[in-house]
Specification:
By secondary structure, this protein is of the alpha/beta class. The chain folds into 2 domains: about 200 residues, Quinone Oxidoreductase, Chain A, domain 1, CATH 3.90.180.10; about 150 residues, Rossmann fold. It is about 25% helix and about 25% strand. The chain contains 12 helices and 17 strands. The strands form 3 sheets. Strands 3, 4, 5, 8, 9, 16 and 17 form a 7-stranded mixed β-sheet that branches. It has a 6-stranded parallel β-sheet with strand order 12-11-10-13-14-15, sandwiched between helices. It has a 4-stranded antiparallel β-sheet with strand order 1-2-6-7, with no helix packed on it. Strand 11, helix 7 and strand 12 form a beta-alpha-beta unit. Helix 5 packs across helix 6. It starts with a strand and ends with a strand. The structure holds nicotinamide-adenine-dinucleotide (NAD), ligand 022 and zinc ion (ZN) (2 copies). One zinc ion binds next to loops. The site of ligand 022 has 15 residues, from helix 1 and helix 3.
Length: about 375
């Protein structure tokens, strides 16, 4: 069939709107009509050419929501008419990783997904006979896409696509990092570095679990009001404190008879390796945990003195908030529909597909929290 897509033909070039050919679903696959998609940093990381593993030409996009319109042979977990969210981290429930219960990083289709093709090694997308790559197993910058059955989460039918698409990446990553990765307990003192589309979701996750202190750190003063909107209790602008942010945060979090400071949990939502070090060192000795969410530039390295870890601080990372997509994503959609978490105010811009490049411009300018393309 013919579908409308924003195609990344070459690294560093704007996306081009084109009509491309999409083959129907094969065994174990589903055809999904994408109704809305968010624009996320990783799409830009790849589009710009900064991603050394980026493949071109490709149909980017990994933060979508839509409706199943056709199923391939053998598909049993979803049916035509089901509303779904594509999963860049699938959940097969039968690979060693899924069965381990220790990670959400399913390995069932990992290698083909990284090669920009479906599990059978071929692409469903083409243009004038030339193959187009899939992206992160999702390719939501097209109004129809084909996905493996294990890479879709079935969600309730009354959830609005133009909001819950954000659960396909940003919301689940931020809220999941709090609940699944850090397992933050009520009363905890926490610091969130970087109050963008991920950090604000960490903040609302911390509010949800009953953290006491939710300190937001951002070099952009406009982020103070944004953080407060979702539950931040204190704001620190490293540019305004006249000194190192680490001792400043340690001092803010001093408690107990010994007056030792440091956060119970910190979160890096910047992707900056210097900030990652600050986030670790702002943790409480003996138990503080720092969660790396931000994706650093290719080849970047993190550093700290081993003493920081020897004295009990813990460095952890998280992919997709540690969420098992088919199990956890429908629950997060329910939380949104029940008013337990917010999404609407974070979606600052809604665009038609034809204006998708403006969404990337808004991201660069720091003007948007999330831009969403509605088909
Ligand atoms: P964003 O650009 O919207 O937000 C980043 C924020 O960090 C901005 O508000 C910026 O002002 C602030 N910042 C920059 N430098 C800073 C500094 N030195 N100190 C304090 N604050 C600083 O980005 P986002 O959409 O929130 O994404 C954040 C990161 O999370 C990206 O690296 C993205 O790729 C990553 N991410 C990771 C996962 C995962 O599964 N691990 C999933 C989604 C996104
Ligand atoms: C999403 N991300 C950043 C912004 N939006 C993002 C990027 C990468 C990962 C997670 C979220 C990630 C962490 C660890 C891995 N990835 C490796 C997973 C594995 O090897 O099992 C990752 C993922 C998908 C892809 C590449 C890297 C891909 O499909 N190309 C989950
Ligand atoms: Zn993303
Ligand atoms: Zn698996």
């Amino acid at each position: 069939m013919d579908v409308k897509a924003a195609v990344a033909f070459e690294a560093g070039k704007p996306l081009e709107i084109a009509t491309v050919k999409l083959d129907g679903p094969k065994a174990g696959e589903v055809l999904v009509e994408i109704k809305a998609t968010g624009i996320c940093h990783t799409d830009e990381f790849t589009r710009s050419g900064a991603d050394p593993e980026g493949l071109f030409p490709a149909i980017l996009g990994h933060e979508g929501a839509g409706v199943v319109v056709e199923i391939g042979p053998g598909v049993t977990s979803v049916a035509v008419g089901d509303n779904v969210i594509p999963l860049y981290t699938p959940e097969c429930r039968e690979c060693p990783s899924c069965l381990s219960r220790k990670t959400n990083l399913c390995t069932k289709i990992r290698s083909t997904q990284g090669q920009g093709v479906m599990p059978d090694g071929t692409s469903r997308f083409s243009l004038d006979g030339r193959k187009l790559h899939h992206y992160m197993g999702c390719s939501t910058f097209a109004n129809f896409t084909v996905l493996p059955e294990i890479a879709v989460a079935k969600i309730r039918p009354d959830a609005p696509f133009d909001k819950v698409c954000y659960i396909g990446c940003g919301v689940t990553t931020g809220v999941g990092a709090v609940i699944n990765t850090a397992k933050v307990e009520p009363g905890a003192k926490c610091v969130v570095f970087g109050l963008g589309g991920i950090g604000l979701n960490v903040i609302q996750g911390l509010r949800l679990v009953g953290a006491d202190m939710i300190i937001g750190v951002d070099t952009n003063p406009a982020k103070k009001a944004w953080g407060e909107r979702f539950g931040m209790t204190h704001f620190v602008n490293p540019k305004e404190i006249g000194g190192d942010v680490v001792p400043y945060l340690v001092n803010m979090t001093k408690h107990g008879a010994d007056q030792i400071g440091g956060a119970d949990y910190t979160f890096d939502c910047t992707g900056n390796v210097n900030v990652m070090r600050q986030a670790l060192e702002a943790c409480h000795r003996g138990w503080g945990q720092s969660i790396i969410i931000g994706v650093a530039a290719a080849g970047a390295e993190i550093a700290t003195r081993p003493f920081q870890l020897v004295t009990g601080r813990v460095w952890k990372g998280t992919a997709f908030g540690g969420a098992r997509g088919r199990t956890d994503v429908p629950r997060i959609v329910d939380w949104y529909m029940e008013g337990k978490i917010e999404i609407d105010p974070m979606i600052t811009h809604t665009l038609p597909l034809a204006d998708i490049n403006r969404g990337f411009d808004l991201m660069h300018a720091g003007e948007s929290i999330r831009s969403v393309v509605v088909y």
